[in-house]
Design brief:
mainly beta, 9 strands, 142 residues, globular
Length: 142
C-alpha cells in the first residue's frame, strides 16, 4: 500500500511539475541557528541563513590561499534595512514560491519581508510598506 501511494505521488509530481517543485533544505533541529537552502528556481543558488539575525550568505567560488581544501566559500549578501539585533530564538525564514518565481526572507514575528532577485546585483530589498497611503507605489491605478 505504501509503495502504491509513493508511486502515485511521484507520478502526480511529474505531471503537475509546478506544484511539486522541491526546495532542498537542511533538516534543522528546533532552535537551530543556521539553515542551508537550495533554490528550485536556480539549482546553482545555495543560501545559508542565520535564522537569529537574518544574515544571508550565498555559496560561491573563491580563490584559494593554499593547495588544501575547497575553493568554495560563503559570500555575505546585502539585506537592506535589516535590523541589527540578535535574537535568542529563530526569527527569520526563507520562503520560495515556485509558481510566482519569488524568493523572499521573512521576519516571522513581524511579517516584514525582503525580496531576492529584483536586480542583477543579488541584493535583498524590503517589500514596500503600504501603511503609508500616500506612497505612490501602493496606489491602485486604472
Amino acid at each position: 500500500m505504501k509503495k502504491t501511494f509513493f508511486f502515485a505521488a511521484l507520478i502526480a509530481c511529474g505531471t503537475l511539475g509546478v506544484l511539486c517543485q522541491e526546495v532542498i533544505s537542511t533538516s534543522t533541529l528546533e532552535g537551530a541557528r543556521f539553515e542551508v537552502i537550495q533554490s528550485p528556481l536556480d539549482k546553482a543558488t545555495t543560501f545559508r541563513l542565520d535564522k537569529f539575525t537574518g544574515n544571508i550568505d550565498r555559496l560561491g567560488t573563491c580563490p584559494k590561499d593554499d593547495g588544501f581544501g575547497s575553493n568554495k566559500c560563503w559570500k555575505e549578501m546585502i539585506v537592506f534595512d535589516l535590523p541589527k539585533t540578535v535574537a535568542a530564538k529563530p526569527r527569520y525564514q526563507i520562503i520560495i514560491n515556485g509558481p510566482l518565481k519569488l524568493t523572499m526572507l521573512m521576519q516571522i514575528d513581524t511579517g516584514r519581508s525582503w525580496q531576492f532577485g529584483v536586480d542583477p546585483q543579488e541584493r535583498w530589498y524590503p517589500f514596500i510598506d503600504c501603511t503609508d497611503r500616500m506612497n505612490s507605489n501602493c496606489l491602485w491605478r486604472p
